[in-house]
Design a protein that fits this description.
single chain, alpha+beta
Amino acid sequence: MRDKIMNRWSTYEPFYIQFNGFKIADIVITSHALSRWTERIGNDQSGIDYICSYIWDALKNEKIQPYYENEKDVYLIDEDLVVVAEFMMLKDEIDIAGNPLYKMIIVTFLGKISEDIQLRDLKAYYSWLRHSRRMTLVKHGRKRK
C-alpha cells in the first residue's frame, strides 16, 4: 500500500495512516481472511488487492473503530463488518520522526452484523461456539467407547 499511485500524475497516497495508536504503513491479508471474505462477504470482488484497498480507504476515512473499548484486536468497519486484526512492527521501518511503523494483519472477517445477529455480542457468540464445539467433542468421544 505504501507506493500506491493515485489517479493524478505524480501524486502518491500517504506513507502511513495513524490508527488506534499505531502508524500503519502496510496491510497483510491472511489466507484464512481471504477465504472468509469470499464466504461471508461474498461480493463479486474478492482479490487481495481489492480487500487491501478497501481497508486502506476505510482507515483513511476513519471508518474503522474498535468493537470493544478495551480490546485491540476486533474492529468494526462501517459499523457493520466485524474484522479481527493484529499489528506487528515493521522491521527497520520508521517515519521521519523516528517512530516505528506497523503492518496491520487481517486475521479473519467474522461477517456482517446486519446479516448475522449473533455478532452483536461477540463474547456471548464465542462462549456459544466454545460450548457447542466442546459438546460435539464430548458426543464423539462417547461414541468411540
